[in-house]
Amino acid sequence: MSVPSLLPGRGQGEDIEEDASPLLPSATAAESLSLSPRPSPPSHRGSEQSSHRLLAYSDALISIVATVMILPVSHTKIRADQELEESLQQLLTTKIAVYIMTFLIVTVAWASHIRLFQVIERIDDVLALLNLACMMLITFLPYTFSLMASFPNDTLGILSFCVCAIIIGLIQAVIVIYGFHRPYLLNAHIYASEDQISYKYQILKMILQAPALFVLAGILSFIYCPVAYAVLAFIIFLPYVTQCTQWCRNKIKGPKELQRVPFYTFHPNEPLSKERVEAFSDGVFAIVATLIILDICEDNVPDSKEVAEKFNGKLIEALSEYGPEFLAYFGSFVTVGLLWFVHHSLFLYITKSTRLMGLLNTISLAFVGGLPLAFRLTHEFAANSRNELEAIQISCVIIFLASLFQFAIWAAALYNEKETLHHHIRYGGKEHAFMFAKLSLYPSVAFVTFCLTYVLSKFSTEIFHLMQIIVPFAFVLLRIIVQIVLAILAWLFSRLKPRTSVLTEEEESAISVSEVAS
Amino acid sequence: MSVPSLLPGRGQGEDIEEDASPLLPSATAAESLSLSPRPSPPSHRGSEQSSHRLLAYSDALISIVATVMILPVSHTKIRADQELEESLQQLLTTKIAVYIMTFLIVTVAWASHIRLFQVIERIDDVLALLNLACMMLITFLPYTFSLMASFPNDTLGILSFCVCAIIIGLIQAVIVIYGFHRPYLLNAHIYASEDQISYKYQILKMILQAPALFVLAGILSFIYCPVAYAVLAFIIFLPYVTQCTQWCRNKIKGPKELQRVPFYTFHPNEPLSKERVEAFSDGVFAIVATLIILDICEDNVPDSKEVAEKFNGKLIEALSEYGPEFLAYFGSFVTVGLLWFVHHSLFLYITKSTRLMGLLNTISLAFVGGLPLAFRLTHEFAANSRNELEAIQISCVIIFLASLFQFAIWAAALYNEKETLHHHIRYGGKEHAFMFAKLSLYPSVAFVTFCLTYVLSKFSTEIFHLMQIIVPFAFVLLRIIVQIVLAILAWLFSRLKPRTSVLTEEEESAISVSEVAS
User: Fold this and answer.
1) What are the backbone dihedrals phi and psi of residue B46, each rounded to the nearest 5 degrees, phi first?
2) Chain A: residue nearest B4 by CA?
């Protein structure tokens, strides 16, 4: 897919920066780049603004809302001696389904928000307020969704969801109309384009498609609920359906001419603001890490009366009862932190993120959001019950899938590496091997641990958390090991065929490539 | 205070950007600016990274940890018919004290983190892992703090707090040593400076000051707890004490020569990364907005059995019982959103943030963090009790103080406007008047509402929440009103003295200045 070239007129406004703090060159330079408008009538100068911070705030809000729905799941009361009986399992399953569906729906809303603000690149006060209204409704979606999950056969749940979604769609349409009314707020490519108006109607059509379908779902909900749910599912998977039919049509009839707006194509290769994918991921990782400490703070501060009566006022003895929970806390924090670290390392070398990578990232993050549940499960169960092993297995599965989908992001990026990857990290080169090692560490550790729970009968949550804490040292070791392996390979090859030592690095990458493919 | 000039060698690495998506010019340009290293040995190219995302993640984590401690406060069970009796008030007071102290201490840790990464501008894998370790301990601080609050006379609480703080200090020292060991990671100013080593020892001395004092506090805690607390308080206010003594000395002996490192001066005018202040504030606003929806989702989904029995299976009737709570939700969300909006508008025009502005911002955010409590109070109390009015009054006080300190940030910026404010917003000019109007809207609305609770006996939470929802329209009106007022003034002046219509804008600003001063 061809992407339009960067227009001139960007990054000119150094005049704004004259008295900015010189201590923060990258920050203020970045700020000035996005603050600096393209030449526009001076009367607008004051009221138009960079959208950077508005988007960062929206990302933070949406990521937290998407993740926080794990709390009702992990706060489901489980007594230590209670086997995972059927009714409880069913309750947990419902709540987990709510969490996953909320996560998916909120991220769909987020993706449409990204597209919208790829079209509208600059904001003013009115757009900021409209966006806040949109955010308010997006944060309200989880509630309507819990209603749907609790009363699947009642019209009200699905109706309230549809009403929210319709209003969100309408607000987005208003934002687009407002943006085209004041073209200096638009994306540079569209601003400079000759047929702005055709762009406008094309984009409006794409945006209003979803609300129209939601109206249909709302009407159907009065007639027969299951049909309404089917329509809802259809709306969520609409982009993929569209894409499939288009792909098939292209295969049969030969490629059609490319769509003119580079957004709203629903092509898996469509660019998705990398900055926003990062901001959203950061939000999820941060809230997950915090939910863990919140659990500790709320539950593990002993009651002063209890300490006085039960432990003769000795706080240390009371706290030593919580010992395993602190271990669980540090273990879980390390896992979240390192998954973030791997994600960070990966996205450092991604130059452009696509819709497909965004989707894989979302799935990975949905599993990361399940980590507070894993934490809760592994520290709530008393030792030596069958539940303890089950809890560890669930944790391993969550960690395995979260890290596996991170790996998949890399695989998707490698598939189109010239467009999406920094040249340091492409096939060949030491960094490629490091990245492969980093990304495969967590899936393999989780897999091995999962297998160990079946082999070792003495495996306990303590060992599991200790393993979690040890992993970061593995990261440091990894770099050393990869370097040693590369050195040995280089030495071997230089002995076999002098002057072709460069090949060794390509060899190394070839190995990892074959493993990516498998 | 003079600030060193921006060094050359920044913003050169356009080569990295060659295949970045051109659809996101500002994002990728910013990325490339911070990704692009100054000329460094090519062997380091792969492993050194921009610190931008690491810092964004740290900011998100710290802001959420700081704010989330409001949850234990707002989750304190209050029955609707229960008067705010003494024991409950005492419990609330303790918990609020824990919240405020946690917020302060975490933000002190955050400020030292900002300083650290103003010295170290680029990171590699080792620094990323060290930083994560540091984050883990910072997120653990609230726990040690709750322990201190619950058992003020036990050595263990204060000891665990000191141990955490000491380890954080030591990790920071290791980061500095590591950074100076690989100077290409350093701040451009220090990197180019001739006496790197003297910088190193100066910075290390400043960083290790706090851990040394914490060791002292730890030892003292074994002897006599109150003294240890005094030492802790001393450490927190150390920067201000240092600053005062320095200021006095300068007044008496005349100004000493300026310190060479522009960070770690504890001068109120010391720059504090504006980008990070914004990121931290965004985190706080986002988590506050989400805590509100979380409350709704956890408490206000009716039980399906209850609906079947009590309301004959009619969901609407069950939900209409929650009507006031939805009103409370939307009202609170609007308030949080608009406080963010005002903050966003203000920081858009701030070109450099200082320590003093950072402090005022922190205090403002601490009150913003209290909004979930206000939400809880206003929707938990049944109508027509004395408590209801009290709850509204508490909410008004929280909103008033949060917005007042935002106003104070502006006042602090105006005090030194040439350095800190964008020229559009300085004295004179329409934008100045708009900003004044925006910033004074919330304090005045909160104040008027507070007074109304004493005058109107019929004032209820419903009216309060409706007022909250109406405020955004006031923002849109505001712009119109200010424009009309300015037009009238301009017309009046043009009639009185032709050709001096520019003065009217200065008049307008003079009014606001006098009010800022008062």
Assistant:
1) -70, -35
2) A22
**Angle, to 10 degrees, between the axis of helix A155-181 and the axis of helix A225-253?**
50
d(CA A178, CA A120): 10
pLDDT of A66 above 70: yes
- Token look-up 């050393």 returns A480
Q: E strands within A399-505?
A: none
- 3-state SS assignment for residue B113: helix
Q: Angle at CA B164, nearest 5°, toward B158 and B169?
A: 120
**Of A123-127, A418-422, B104-108, where does mean pLDDT reach its minimum?**
A418-422
Q: 3-state DSSP call for residue B354?
A: strand
Residue numbers of A between 393 and 452 with CB closer than 8 Å to B: 418-419, 422, 424, 429-431
CA angle in degrees (0–180, nearest 5) for A496-A499-A502: 95
For B29, residues 6+ apart whose C-beta sits below 8 A from its C-beta are A10, A11, A30, A33, A34, B17
Over residues B199-213, mean pLDDT: 86
Count other C-beta atoms under 10 Å from residue A30's C-beta: 24
> Which residue is associated with the tokens 């307008």?
B508
Contact B76, B91 (CB under 8 A): yes
What is the 8-class DSSP label of residue A370?
Answer: T
A405 band by pLDDT with thresholds 50, 70 and 90 = very high
Å between A457 CA and nearest CA of chain B: 32
Q: How far is B254 from chain A (nearest CA, A)?
A: 27
Residue A24 has a pLDDT of: 35
Spatial distance between the Cα atoms of A487 and A504, rounded to a whole number of angstroms: 9
Residue in chain A lying closest to B340 (CA): A57
B27 three-state secondary structure: helix
Q: How far apart are CA A270 and CA A249, in angstroms?
A: 19
How many Cα atoms sit within 13 Å of A389 on the Cβ side? 13
Radius of gyration over alpha carbons of chain A, in Å? 26
Among A163, A119, A142, A148, residue whose Cα is nearest residue A64: A142
pLDDT of B170:
93
The gap from C-alpha A84 to its chain's centroid, in whole angstroms, comes to: 30
- Cβ burial B420-437 (10 Å sphere, 16+ → b, else e): bbbbbbbebbbbbbbbbb
Tell me which amino acid residue B147 is.
L
**pLDDT at A449 > cutoff 70:** yes
CA distances from A436 to A49, A346, A406, A433, A480 (A): 41, 10, 11, 5, 14
Interface size A-B, in CB pairs within 8 Å, comes to 314
As to burial, measured by CB atoms within 10 angstroms (0-12 exposed, 13-18 middle, 19+ buried), residue B393 is middle
Task: Report the pLDDT value the prediction gives residue A266, as an integer from 0 to 100.
Answer: 64
Q: Kindly report, residue by residue over B291-350, the tens digit of the pLDDT.
A: 888 777 777 777 777 777 777 777 777 777 777 778 888 888 889 999 999 999 888 888
User: Are A378 and A395 spatial neighbours (Cβ–Cβ below 8 Å)?
Assistant: yes
Contact A22 B31 (CB under 8 A): no
pLDDT higher than threshold 50 for residue B26: no
Q: What count of other Cβ atoms lies within 10 Å of the Cβ of residue B238?
A: 15
**Structure pTM?**
0.80
Distance CA A126, CA A149 (A): 35
> In the numeric block, which tokens belong to residue A112?
């449409």
Sign of CA dihedral B28, B33, B38, B44: negative
Judged by a CB distance cut-off of 8 A, whether residue B48 touches chain A is no
Question: DSSP letter at B17?
Answer: G
Residue A296, both tokens: 């500790």
CA A405/CA B1 separation, integer angstroms: 50
Quick one: which of A60, A251, A344 has its CA closest to B59?
Answer: A60
A3, B22 contact by CB (below 8 A): yes
Segment A274-288, tens digit of pLDDT: 888 898 999 899 989
